[in-house]
Design a protein that fits this description.
This protein is α/β, with parallel strands linked by helices and about 240 residues long. About 35% of the residues lie in helices and about 15% in strands.
């Protein structure tokens, strides 16, 4: 199915979305950026979703676009279209296999991010949502350097979870934003209200045998109610 819109557009009003999340668990961050892009598109806006998580691109999978490819034309790279008004670009579209590892140093990451902004035929966008990896490294420095002086730059949204090990990273992201004069639109505390009844959890061994009760008894006997608290302080 050809999702490419028939009318040509040029990049106009970008909103840069800087997203951070604990390094061990990225999908919820990309869920927020994906849902934001889908919501804006559903309201009729022309939206671009740019995934600059070079080493862990998940956006194609989040949108069910794993088998799509980008194409080169006289005007530049053609992004993949989820809808006529939602263009998507990710290095995940360039991999021969989804499990291929990208082992790049900083300069190569910087170059591909510049190409995503400069050489992609984004069209006349109302919003450009940029999904970045956690941290304050090459990807973040590059995207801020390229977009900070855009007249219509809205700012950054920080995505985190409520535990302290996540907030440590987020404080660094916020300091990075202050140092680079990147406006912060707000902080999303993902899964902050999520609770689960441990009695509903099921566990099995390597052979598939149900060992739920034994595991629950072991956890209660070892940690009691202090499992979460102990994890916060690193013990």
């Amino acid at each position: 199915m050809d999702r490419t819109p028939s009318r040509a557009r040029s990049l106009a009003r970008p909103i840069s979305l800087q997203l951070s999340y604990p390094r061990s668990f990225a999908p919820p961050r990309q869920t927020v950026s994906t849902q934001l892009a889908l919501s804006l598109a559903a309201k009729g806006a022309e939206v671009g979703l740019l995934d600059i998580d070079i080493c862990g691109p998940s956006t194609p999978r989040m949108l069910g676009l794993e088998n799509e490819e980008i194409h080169q034309s006289a005007s530049g790279w053609q992004p993949v279209y989820y809808h006529e008004n939602l263009a998507v670009m990710s290095i995940g579209f360039m991999l021969s296999k989804p499990d291929d590892a990208i082992v790049w140093r900083g300069p190569k990451k910087t170059a591909i991010i510049k190409s995503f902004l400069k050489d992609v035929e984004w069209g006349q966008l109302d919003y450009l949502v940029v999904d970045s990896p956690p941290g304050t490294s090459d990807e973040h420095i590059s995207i801020v350097q390229y977009l900070l002086h855009c007249q219509n730059l809205s700012g950054a949204v920080i995505v985190t979870t409520s535990q302290e090990v996540s907030l440590v990273d987020v404080r660094k992201e916020i300091n990075f934003a202050f140092k680079t004069e990147l406006p912060i639109l707000g902080v999303v505390s993902n899964m902050a209200g999520f609770t689960v009844d441990t009695e509903t959890l099921r566990y099995s061994d390597a052979a598939g045998n149900d060992i739920s009760e034994a595991v629950k008894d072991l956890l209660k006997g070892t940690f009691g109610e202090g499992l979460r608290a102990e994890g916060q302080v690193g013990t």
